[in-house]
Amino acid sequence: MAKIIPFRGIRYAVTGGSRLSKVVAPPYDVISTQQKKQLKTADPHNVIRLIIGNPSHEAHRPSDYQAAKKHFSEWREKGVLKRDDETSIYVYRQSFTLRGKTFHRTGFVALSRLTPFGNQKGGILAHEHTLSGPKADRLKLMKACHANFSSIFSLYPDKGGVRKALKKITARKADMSVHYPKDVHNQVWRVSDPKAVKEIQGRIKNATLFIADGHHRYETALAYQDHCSHWAKGLLGSRPFDYVQMMFVAMEDPGLVILPTHRMLPKRHDSSPSLLLSRLSSLGEVHEYPKPLSGLAPWQWMEKLGKKQPTLGLSFDGQRLYALKFSKSVAKSPFLKDVSDAQKKLDVTLLHRLILEPFFGITKEKVENEIFFTSKAEEAVERLRKGEVAATFFLNPTRIEQLREVALKRERMPQKSTYFYPKLVTGLVFNDLDSF
Questions:
Q1: CATH number belonging to domain 261-396
Q2: Which of 42, 115, 217, 360 has the highest CB neighbour number within 10 Å of its CB?
Q3: If you count DSSP H runs as helices and E runs as strands, how many of each does the chain have, helices first?
């Protein structure tokens, strides 16, 4: 069962407008080198100085973590950051437009009791494998600063009617409001009334939680708990580091949007297009994007092909697009003998097990050094046209029901199988791991 408690959040002294937009940032793992420079110049107190940013693109020195520790301490002493006097739950809504449609995604931020994945009936479940590099990096930062600087993003089936309780709260004016990025409106309502907090706790207490985004940080929080348990006193569940800051969103929320994460192969994996297409034809039907255009955008064309059978796209030059529609017979492949029927329906699993591993030798242990990831098809196309990558595999979005089915089987999809859009903004609220 979900164990949720309120906490005394640490927040910037500013609560909205252009000032707040200059101190917040995207999650650490999606920040480019150029964006990191821009964030640092935006404001001397931008949260990038705490989260450091982007371990997948650069190695961090021990002094980087110590600098983050120094900033966090000094900003609290000077009043740049202030800790709320009362324990609270923070209702968080993001409003955005995608492909001409407006969405509103509403959840709440609180502390969740740490428990190993799948350790009990219900509990907290994962759906993706993780990479070693980001976990080692985040653990060093956590050991230096003793804080959660961002929320893990989790999902829950709303059988208790949590959304109904949140709707009453969001009817009033928000306590924090910021457009960041410019096309995403972020609003936060602080809920400190014990009755309101208790109602939310009661409505979610029997729910199973599914990690949507933040698998690395959740596993890091478990490692930090183990680290602290060697010297700290107190019963399990009574210590601050037994909890982690988490965002909770209902699986039924109409604003829940998942984008695919496409795979780009570096130039060292360059191969003959005709040869690769021939090998792929042994796995199913290979189609070429029609010319002249059929009236469907490439992503619509792929989604249409993938309605009944897993389908992925492939391009070598950013000009021509092919689609592989897997045949049903691939489910009997010996490369899939250790996964459930739920995973055999996923294009991302079939890509890794039937193509990347046997054709290119990219096992799950090698993924972080052998593949570039992007949720933006335009970026992949541009890099193909510039000749920076050998090929790109384009994926359809993983559906919520697929995520749930795989997680309930206690299985993991390949790394970066889902991209929940938009990302949660970093810098709205922090959690102190030294005291409640």
A1: 3.30.1760
A2: 217
A3: 15, 21
